[in-house]
Design brief:
Layout lengths: L3 E3 L4 E2 L5 E8 L10 E7 L2 E2 L6 E9 L5 E4 L5 E6 L32 E3 L4 E2 L2 E2 L9 E4 L4 E8 L1 E3 L4 H5 L6 E3 L3 E11 L12 E4 L2 E6 L1
Parallel strand pairs: 2-18, 5-18
Antiparallel strand pairs: 1-3, 3-4, 4-6, 6-13, 7-12, 8-16, 9-13, 10-11, 10-13, 14-15, 16-17, 16-18
Amino acid sequence: MCFVLLLSSNSINAQTGTEIKFKILGNSSSTSKDLITVSTIINAKQPLAGNGIHFTLVVKNNANNAISLKNIIDRLTVSLYNDRGFNISIPNTNPDIINRRAEDRKWRFRSETVVPDDQVSINGRIEKSDIKKMEFIDIPAGGEWKINLIIKNVKQVETPEDQENSFLKPAKSLSPGKYKLRLSLVIAPSEQNKSAGKSGAYIAPFIDIEYN
């Protein structure tokens, strides 16, 4: 089955409690569409008291059977743009984790700007397993996988030259201001030989955030 991504617009002005959904759709011959729903829940206005921009990533299994996915956290990319239009997120420059042995795995997002705010939950129940060491994530039929995340440290980028050499720029705590957040996520089944043609790539519309 070949999956495609459905997006409704290029930009979203988030409101309090807004849920932004992206769906993998089956082809026309499929009897089960919307197999997986990825949602980002975020408040458009974030207080400085939160020490960063908080958001929630939700992956829901709408199928009638359990699914096993490659660790979602390993495949989350976060980009944060300042009011000058520069990406100030810190990329993860570590080697690719896809073929790393479970015992060697570390908690490393594709962007070092993001850190977990608490533990992972499935259907509201906190998972006891250490997400940092998990190669796969199992979601039961109709189940909902959820994690709260926070954007904290960013690069100091204010000019085109800074952007070009951002890897040399120091990291700093997120300053008050207006930002645009963009998320991308690859959903892939745990079976390596079944990944081709069955992965879903999610690129979220820009989300306007006020942090003050």
